Structure formats: C-alpha cells, structure tokens
Amino acid sequence: MTRGFVSLVGAGPGDPELLTLRAVARLREADIVFYDALVDRAALAHAPQARFAFVGKRAGRPSIEQRTIETLLIRHARRGERVVRLKSGDPFVFGRGGEEALALAAAGVPCEIVPGVSSAFAAPALSGIPLTHRGLASAFLVVSGHAPEAWRPALQSLPPGAATVVVLMGLGSRAAIATALLAGGWSARTPAAVLLSASRREAHTWRGTLAKLGRADVDSGAPGVLVVGATVDVAAQLERLAAPAALSGGAR
Ligand SMILES: C[S@@+](CC[C@H](N)C(=O)[O-])C[C@H]1O[C@@H](n2cnc3c(N)ncnc32)[C@H](O)[C@@H]1O
C-alpha cells in the first residue's frame, strides 16, 4: 500500500474470520483507521501500527457529518498517511462508500475499494437460507428498509414470489413491509426470517411467515436483516438433516 492513499475496506458482518485477506493486509499497513459503529472491534487488532478514529453514526445520538468524514480522509491522505476507511459488510452496499470514493477522486486522492462480505448475503447464508435455489428462487432483491420511498417502489414492482427479498435496516419497518407485500398479493404463508447480529456471539434468528413478520418479537436494537421468500424454508430442512452445530446463525 503506497503512502497518501485511502483504502475503502469492507469488514464483513462482524466475525473477523470473514475479513478478506486483502482487508487484513490493508489493516496491517495502515497508519490510521476510520471505522464505523457496526465494525467489530476485533478487526482492529489486525492494525498494530494504526491510530483509530470512530466515525460511526449511532441511531438517536449526535453523529459525525458525512462531509466531515470525507474531509478527514482527504486530510490524512494528503499528509502522506496510509488511510483505511473500515465499513461493515461491503463498502458499496448501503455504506455511502460510493460518495466517499467520489469525494476522494474529486480531491485527487488515490483510493481503492476492498470489497467485503455483505450482511445482505452473509446473514442468510450463515442461517442456512440460500438466496437462490433451483425451483424456489432464481433472483433476489436487496432493499433498504430505512424509508418507505426506498423500499416501496422496488417491492411494488416485484410480482409475488418472484424473488427472495432481503431488507437491510428494516427491523423498525418490518410491519409496514409485510403489509405492503401482502397487499401486493404475496401469500400470507410465505416463509420469512429475521436474522440478528449474524456471525456474532449474540446471533439470533426468528423464523415464521409473512403474516407473522410484522409482530415478530425481536430485539430492534441489534443489526438485523429481513428475508422473505420460499428459500427461508431450506433452513428448516437443513436443520432437520444437518448436525445442530452446523447452523448456529453464524455465532462464534
Ligand atoms: C448502514 S447498513 C450497512 C450494510 C453493510 N455495508 C453491508 O454490506 O452489510 C447497516 C445494516 O446492515 C445490516 N447488518 C450489518 N451487519 C449485520 C449483522 N452482523 N447481522 C445482521 N444485519 C447486519 C443491518 O440491516 C444494518 O441495519
């Protein structure tokens, strides 16, 4: 890694074993690491020479402006430092990584993207839910549940059962999303799951149906992914067939 350079690095869903080899290499050489709220602190142990700066946004608390983060990345790279911007999952999936890459490019700061293991597919996989499965689903749709204008048009455009639906940042809107899918003609018996803190010690999975998703009793303070579609039932089949330890929601 050359000096005066920024690596936008995906840290995966939490478990440091899901960091890529390239992510570990960039951390090992970093002079400073700017990290987000959902980054597991264990990942920072791979950066022995670095200083650390928390720049996470936490719900309900004052948080650092996006523009300030971009200014900090540019300032430290211009000082000749090896800067790692460490984001949960993949930096280009609901992580504002694209905005940071554009800001760096506009400032003439060299930058690279180090892809990460996104919770969009890691959380389902760790729970035994394939996003595609022959005969059940040949497509999947990933949406943000953050605001209705983000998910409603995408879900309304999807014929019932046409794809596995994955929702990030959607715990608080699970009732509204379930209602919208039911209104769009999805069967109330469609399997559904809520996957909390995937790959972490406190990982927890709720499984039920679309009819019950809105009332699922889950910890809304944990990071979570909603999954709706026929492939959710594959997890139940795997549980019946596989050794219990094989599917633990990815808990370490
Ligand atoms: C701002 S988005 C960042 C997504 C990230 N860039 C990715 O690719 O996973 C934060 C959302 O990611 C999801 N998320 C991140 N880590 C998770 C985990 N370990 N288990 C379940 N969901 C997770 C949750 O939906 C959370 O609200």
What does this structure look like?
This protein starts with a strand and ends in an 11-residue tail after the last helix. The protein has a five-stranded parallel sheet, sandwiched between helices. A five-stranded mixed sheet has the order 6-7-10-8-9, sandwiched between helices. Helices cover 29% and strands 20% of the residues. The chain is an alpha/beta fold and 252 residues long. The site of S-adenosylmethionine (SAM) has 24 residues, from α4 and β10.
List the helices and strands and how they pair.
Elements: E1 5-10, H1 21-29, E2 32-35, E3 51-54, H2 66-78, E4 82-87, H3 97-106, E5 111-114, H4 119-126, E6 140-144, H5 148-156, E7 164-168, H6 174-183, E8 191-196, E9 204-209, H7 210-213, E10 224-228, H8 232-241
Helix pairs in contact: 5-6
S-adenosylmethionine (SAM) binds next to α4 and β10.
In CATH terms, what is the architecture of the largest domain?
Answer: 2-Layer Sandwich
Task: Give the low-pLDDT segments.
Answer: none
Bound molecules: S-adenosylmethionine
Tell me the distance between the termini.
31 Å
Question: Can you give me a brief rundown of this structure?
Answer:
The protein is α/β, with parallel strands linked by helices and 252 residues long. It contains eight helices and ten strands. Helix 5 packs parallel to helix 6.
